[in-house]
Amino acid sequence: MESEASKKPLRGRHGSQSGLPLQARAWRQIEYRAAPPRLPELTPAMKRRREAYEIYRREREKIERRSVVRGLLLLALLALSISIFRSGLDRVFVHGWWRP
After folding, report:
1. Residues 93, 96: Cα–Cα separation, whole Å
2. Domain residues for 50?
3. What confidence tier does 2 reach under pLDDT thresholds 50, 70, 90?
4. 68 occurs within a structural domain
5. What is the gyration radius of the CA atoms in the chain, in angstroms?
6. How far apart are CA 72 and CA 79, in angstroms?
7. Most exposed among 16, 20, 60, 73, judged by the fewest C-beta atoms under 10 Å?
8. 42-80 pLDDT per residue, tens
9. 76 phi and psi, to 5 degrees?
10. pTM higher than 0.85 for the full model?
11. What is the Cα–Cα distance from 82 to 94, expressed in whole angstroms?
12. How far apart are CA 9 and CA 61, in angstroms?
Protein backbone atom coordinates (compact mmCIF):
# COMPACT_ATOMS: atom_id res chain seq x y z
CA MET A 1 0.00 0.00 0.00
CA GLU A 2 1.03 3.55 -0.60
CA SER A 3 1.58 5.95 2.26
CA GLU A 4 0.16 9.47 2.49
CA ALA A 5 3.58 11.00 1.85
CA SER A 6 4.04 9.18 -1.46
CA LYS A 7 0.74 10.56 -2.80
CA LYS A 8 1.81 14.20 -2.40
CA PRO A 9 3.70 15.85 -5.28
CA LEU A 10 7.46 16.14 -4.85
CA ARG A 11 7.33 19.91 -4.80
CA GLY A 12 5.10 19.92 -1.76
CA ARG A 13 7.11 17.42 0.20
CA HIS A 14 10.42 19.29 0.21
CA GLY A 15 9.58 22.95 0.58
CA SER A 16 7.61 24.99 3.04
CA GLN A 17 5.73 26.65 0.18
CA SER A 18 4.04 23.45 -0.87
CA GLY A 19 0.91 24.95 -2.37
CA LEU A 20 2.59 27.57 -4.57
CA PRO A 21 3.36 26.89 -8.20
CA LEU A 22 7.00 26.83 -9.25
CA GLN A 23 7.00 30.37 -10.76
CA ALA A 24 5.48 32.00 -7.68
CA ARG A 25 7.94 30.27 -5.41
CA ALA A 26 10.99 31.36 -7.43
CA TRP A 27 10.74 35.09 -6.66
CA ARG A 28 10.44 34.42 -2.94
CA GLN A 29 13.59 32.37 -2.73
CA ILE A 30 16.63 34.27 -1.53
CA GLU A 31 19.83 33.46 -3.28
CA TYR A 32 22.89 33.61 -1.08
CA ARG A 33 26.20 34.11 -2.79
CA ALA A 34 29.69 34.03 -1.42
CA ALA A 35 31.30 37.39 -0.84
CA PRO A 36 34.04 38.39 -3.28
CA PRO A 37 37.53 37.54 -2.08
CA ARG A 38 39.22 40.25 -0.01
CA LEU A 39 42.82 40.78 0.90
CA PRO A 40 43.63 39.94 4.50
CA GLU A 41 44.16 42.75 6.96
CA LEU A 42 47.74 43.97 7.03
CA THR A 43 49.67 42.97 10.10
CA PRO A 44 52.21 45.35 11.66
CA ALA A 45 55.02 43.17 10.33
CA MET A 46 53.61 43.38 6.79
CA LYS A 47 53.29 47.17 7.08
CA ARG A 48 56.90 47.50 8.28
CA ARG A 49 58.10 45.29 5.46
CA ARG A 50 56.16 47.31 2.87
CA GLU A 51 57.57 50.60 4.21
CA ALA A 52 61.10 49.16 4.23
CA TYR A 53 60.65 48.01 0.64
CA GLU A 54 59.47 51.49 -0.43
CA ILE A 55 62.56 53.06 1.15
CA TYR A 56 64.79 50.48 -0.54
CA ARG A 57 63.10 51.08 -3.91
CA ARG A 58 63.54 54.86 -3.66
CA GLU A 59 67.25 54.43 -2.87
CA ARG A 60 67.68 52.06 -5.80
CA GLU A 61 65.96 54.54 -8.13
CA LYS A 62 68.40 57.26 -7.04
CA ILE A 63 71.36 54.98 -7.72
CA GLU A 64 69.91 54.00 -11.09
CA ARG A 65 69.42 57.63 -12.12
CA ARG A 66 73.01 58.47 -11.14
CA SER A 67 74.38 55.57 -13.13
CA VAL A 68 72.32 56.56 -16.19
CA VAL A 69 73.63 60.14 -16.01
CA ARG A 70 77.20 58.86 -15.59
CA GLY A 71 76.78 56.58 -18.59
CA LEU A 72 75.42 59.37 -20.77
CA LEU A 73 78.26 61.70 -19.76
CA LEU A 74 80.77 58.96 -20.48
CA LEU A 75 79.28 58.43 -23.94
CA ALA A 76 79.36 62.18 -24.62
CA LEU A 77 83.03 62.39 -23.60
CA LEU A 78 83.83 59.33 -25.69
CA ALA A 79 82.12 60.84 -28.75
CA LEU A 80 83.93 64.15 -28.18
CA SER A 81 87.31 62.47 -27.80
CA ILE A 82 86.78 60.37 -30.94
CA SER A 83 85.78 63.42 -32.96
CA ILE A 84 88.82 65.35 -31.65
CA PHE A 85 91.10 62.42 -32.47
CA ARG A 86 89.74 62.13 -36.01
CA SER A 87 89.85 65.83 -36.86
CA GLY A 88 92.97 66.80 -34.94
CA LEU A 89 93.46 69.28 -32.12
CA ASP A 90 94.46 72.11 -34.47
CA ARG A 91 91.01 72.07 -36.13
CA VAL A 92 89.02 71.78 -32.89
CA PHE A 93 90.90 74.43 -30.93
CA VAL A 94 91.95 76.91 -33.59
CA HIS A 95 94.59 79.49 -32.77
CA GLY A 96 93.08 82.36 -30.73
CA TRP A 97 89.71 80.67 -29.97
CA TRP A 98 89.87 81.86 -26.36
CA ARG A 99 90.21 85.55 -27.31
CA PRO A 100 87.19 87.68 -28.21
Report:
1. 8
2. 43-92
3. low
4. yes
5. 41
6. 11
7. 16
8. 899 999 999 999 999 999 999 999 999 999 999 999 999
9. -65, -45
10. no
11. 18
12. 73
